[in-house]
């Protein structure tokens, strides 16, 4: 799974699944206990009368389909008028509403944990880029300060040139357009 680290989104997905692993294992164990309880209950209640519950395998498939929203409630109700609605409501309540939402909350908590870990985690390349940016900014700052001292050593034509130089320096200290600044300083020098 080393190739998941190449794409940040795939890496986040993989780390989320790793963080959710122990909780998901316990949840899947509990989910199968509850789900198989409904499978066997459906087999015992509706097996003799309903074709989709005739065997345990068919009952399992019918419960999976019911979990996905594909079910035949009328055949269950014809088989057993009293227990069919109770079975159906309990299945929807426990399996669909509660257990699937617990699954989503486990994955969501693991994603938040992964996201927090990734915010604090900086790679070597990003740290190196930050350091290089700071170094180049310092070099650029020192260069322009020395250049400015050089210009003030010469006689200035008038007071307006001094204010123009200050405005140029203030404006271009925040931008990266070095060539434009050099051209303007040359024009003012001549």
Structure report:
- With 190 residues, the protein is mainly alpha-helical.
- Helix content is 80%, strand content 0%.
- It has seven helices and no strands.
- Helix 1 (8-46) packs antiparallel against helix 4 and helix 6 runs antiparallel to helix 7.
> Given the helix and strand composition, which structural class is it?
mainly alpha
Mean pLDDT: 79
Separate helix tally: 7
- Please bin the fraction of helical residues: over 70%
Low-confidence stretches: 155-159
What are the secondary-structure elements, in order, as H or E? Answer: HHHHHHH
Number of strands: 0
Give the amount of beta strand, in percent: under 5%
Distance between the termini: 64 Å
Rg calc: 35 Å
> Mind describing the biggest β-sheet?
none
Shape annotation:
rod-shaped
What order do the helices and strands come in, and which of them pair?
Layout: H1 8-46, H2 56-67, H3 73-79, H4 83-120, H5 124-153, H6 159-172, H7 178-189
Summary tags:
190 residues, mainly alpha, 7 helices, rod-shaped
Short description:
With 190 residues, the protein is mainly α. The protein is 80% helix and 0% strand.
């Amino acid at each position: 799974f080393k190739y998941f680290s190449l794409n940040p989104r795939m890496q986040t997905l993989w780390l989320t699944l790793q963080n959710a692993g122990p909780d998901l294992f316990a949840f899947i164990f509990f989910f199968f206990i509850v789900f198989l309880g409904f499978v066997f209950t459906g087999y015992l209640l509706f097996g003799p009368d309903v074709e989709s519950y005739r065997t345990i395998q068919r009952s399992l498939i019918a419960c999976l389909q019911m979990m996905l929203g594909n079910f035949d409630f009328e055949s269950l109700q014809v088989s057993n008028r009293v227990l069919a609605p109770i079975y159906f409501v309990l299945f929807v309540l426990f399996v669909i509403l509660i257990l699937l939402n617990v699954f989503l909350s486990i994955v969501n908590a693991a994603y938040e944990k992964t996201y927090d870990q990734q915010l604090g985690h900086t790679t070597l390349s990003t740290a190196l880029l930050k350091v290089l940016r700071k170094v180049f900014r310092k070099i650029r700052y020192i260069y322009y300060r020395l250049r400015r001292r050089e210009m003030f050593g010469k006689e200035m034509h008038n007071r307006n040139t001094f204010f123009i130089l200050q405005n140029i320096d203030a404006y271009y200290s925040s931008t990266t357009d070095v060539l434009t600044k050099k051209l303007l300083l040359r024009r003012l020098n001549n």
